[in-house]
Amino acid sequence: MNRPVPKRVAAQLDRPVHVSGPIRALSRMVGNFATFSGRASRSEFWWAQLAVLLLFVIPVLLCVIGGVVGSAWVEQKAKETEAGGEPAFMGPTFGDSPGMALVVFGVMLVVMLVIALIVPSLSLQCRRLRDAGFSGLFLLLNLIPYLGPLVLLVFAFLPSAPEGARYDVPQRRAATQVAAGS
Fold first, then answer.
1. pTM for the whole thing?
2. Rounded CA separation 85/163 (Å)
3. Is the pLDDT score of 175 beyond 60?
4. 110-155 tens-digit pLDDT
5. Transmembrane residues, as ranges (predicted)?
6. Which of 3, 44, 107, 111 is surrounded by the fewest CB atoms within 10 Å?
7. d(CA 158, CA 25)
8. Neighbours of 166 (CB within 10 A)
């Protein structure tokens, strides 16, 4: 049963929040899933980045644990193979180890998270650029290897600019309605 989002809540997603936390920032990032209009404050952007980083910790830990378990298993099996007199090339491989399942599961989780968060992350980055007074087209800097993401990182640290207010969606709608005489 889908309930419509109240206008009050929808309007709150359009404006930057200057005091935020990781949970609120992540919910706003997901709530503005593909909204490239409006603005996002520095705190909203960085809290969301921290939340995304924390989401990736578990799958990466699964991969590391799987790698350690798999390596220890291969080493133990290799010693058993040498003791049995078999040639080294017939020994166990990492693909045979029980740790491989953890690595595969961790990689699958990372891929799913990347797919699920790519559009919300780009829209949040676009809104952050607008809050700093830049055009959202600066997102194209991501296509320049090394230098482009570094420039965008510097832009993300810049404070909110008064010029960014021109990207506020409700403000534009209100100005249009006043000009039309509604």
1. 0.74
2. 75
3. no
4. 999 999 999 999 999 999 999 999 999 999 999 999 999 999 999 9
5. 45-69, 100-124, 136-158
6. 3
7. 18
8. 11
